[in-house]
RNA sequence: GGCCUGAUGGCGGAGCGGUUACGCACCGGAUUGCAAAUCCGUGAAGCCCGGUUCGACUCCGGGUCAGGCCUCCA
């Protein structure tokens, strides 16, 4: 099975070949922990979690190193800390914990490494020093700036020319910059802000340097795959390349930084861009109180990762129905034993085609149907095992099927429902249909739907209750 | 202005130069005390205009529309 991925730099689908199959490296830009993550932030997390699972499937669980940084030095963090009168780590630890909990609710595995800027300051200073030593950066008024003109292939990832950028520059050029497109590697901290020592004076790192420095320090250059949101292509990833390469050699373009670049598309909300002014920012932290994390995950995977995805109530409802159907099948065949099963080839094939999750979903449906229509126990065991194995690589269907339909039901209600169902079973046994119907109606008023079967009765909460 | 995406049935969403995607919803049938679930089945598509081709939703050109990036941003 050959893994094909779309590489942003080449603008084409290419075969993935790791430098070392025993040590496949993946880096994805993670959160700046000053507040809660929104669903837009969750898309890359879920998408690259599937990639992580797929790579582990192909190369072995211990042969994939996935790093996702936590940015804990940032202006917005400083502001939040200042506003609340606390040290920045009070803010960053708090939101990093919430972030990890929320992403776990979406079924995302913890990355192998979660490097933090504050823990990698020496590596950052080292990388800046190397860039300066190689003649690609200059110090000016306490700042260190990357000299874009010194790096000939700058703009290759985003397909921008330096000339265009100069022509289109809209912002006022800071006096310490030689050229408007030069970007900050190190800058002085303002009064009251956290500060670290450096050869260029006390200060803090610029925005882009953290990722390239942490990649070099934690994974080693070049890495196999670098991922992130589409919006990071420019300037963030462009600048990472410039830094990472120019730290290694005086002519950075002679080596490589990341062999494959993957970027997920954006989310819109009922067709609009998410923005604070429109008031349509949906936080994962809030959403998971209303919708199962697995539904959110499946909805995020319902479209191909590179395309746009419109986040709507309809999308959530359709995704919920789809998962209800599959969990319903699993509940119906709860007694069928499961054996260890490799990822079904059709699913592996779909995901190996640049993470074609919609096609993987189609296979999931086919396997669920195979389970429903299996002629004998052997076929049922095979189909159920395959369905669960397929779900595993997608991070879906691993929960208890019975619990799926009863999520959020408190104990009092459960007791009440179970009692009514017992009464109803007695009535049905006695063929007292009017009593049975009366109880069905009573349950209905509790928002519960009863499903009779040959072996008893099950129930679930009705949609929207 | 520059760069980049996308446009598929009622909705979501893939593949594919000629053959059913798949799901959700709907409709018909089976099944069910009733119902749900399930199964079987029907219907439903490819923004516009050209071109290439025996044949295009699929390739090429142009247009229209929508969205993103160029400043913090997944």
From TrEMBL:
GO molecular function terms noted in the UniProt entry: ATP binding; cysteine-tRNA ligase activity; zinc ion binding
Catalytic reaction equation(s): tRNA(Cys) + L-cysteine + ATP = L-cysteinyl-tRNA(Cys) + AMP + diphosphate
UniProt-annotated location(s): Cytoplasm
Keywords: Aminoacyl-tRNA synthetase, ATP-binding, Cytoplasm, Ligase, Metal-binding, Nucleotide-binding, Protein biosynthesis, Zinc
Gene Ontology annotations of biological process type: cysteinyl-tRNA aminoacylation
UniProt family annotation: Belongs to the class-I aminoacyl-tRNA synthetase family.
Protein name per Swiss-Prot or TrEMBL: Cysteine--tRNA ligase
Organism in which the protein naturally occurs: Asticcacaulis biprosthecium C19
Taxonomic lineage from the root: Bacteria, Pseudomonadati, Pseudomonadota, Alphaproteobacteria, Caulobacterales
